[in-house]
Hints:
By secondary structure, the protein is of the alpha/beta class. The protein has two domains: 5-46 and 100-217, Ribosomal Protein L4, Chain: A (3-Layer(aba) Sandwich), CATH 3.40.1370.10; 53-93, no CATH class. The chain is built from seven helices and six strands, in the order ββαααβαβαβαβα. The chain has helices at residues 23-26, 32-45, 105-121, 138-147, 163-169, 185-190, 198-207; strands at 5-9, 15-20, 125-128, 154-157, 175-178, 193-197. The protein has a six-stranded mixed beta sheet. The longest helix is centred in the middle third of the chain and has 17 residues, at 105-121.
Amino acid sequence: MADLKAPLFSADGVAKGDVALDSDIFGIEPNMPVMHQVVTAQLAGKRRGTASTKSRGEVRGGGRKPWRQKGLGRARQGSIRAPHWAGGGVAHGPKPRDFSQRTPKKMKRLALRSALSARASEEAVLVVEPIEWAPAKTKQAVTLLAAIGAVGKTLLVLNHTDEAAHRAFRNLPNVVIAEPGHITTYDVLWSDQVLFTTSTLQAMSRTGGYAVGEADFVKESVGGESA
């Protein structure tokens, strides 16, 4: 297998050559069915599941038979809150439920590596040297993305200590920021390119790429906080 490489840029967008990519993470054969199942589980976990309707037993009123059974020439009716009546209950309507799915960790790791390998095969993995702008400006982030050819949606992988880069990139609408070990398959497939720093690229090789816990796939509550 040929050596996997990604272009390396300075924080100002100047080309610095290439950097090697870990073939165990960026060089495997993408497994499409696993990626599909993991992304489906992730999106299902984000569903609130709060939709609710009232059945005929929960709608107010309708306790008395509207008219007698026979002799009026009309269809027999037992309650004005039956589903076919206006204002009646809903038949087989939605009720609050949990849409989250449990996915094996090995499957999540394989899906993430498959997605990263797919991006690497498309030459959509970019690496930048540590971003240490002082002060950090969003204009600098826009200039950097334009200089390295990052057009469209970008997944930016930063350490939690990269505060300057966080401030510079967080307001850009087409940029999603994630930390090593907390990248999901959906994030990678959503993006047109994945941008690492040299330190986060090394962290991906050390951790094997995936360390996201079950909380990342748990549905959100009504108030917006994780359940």
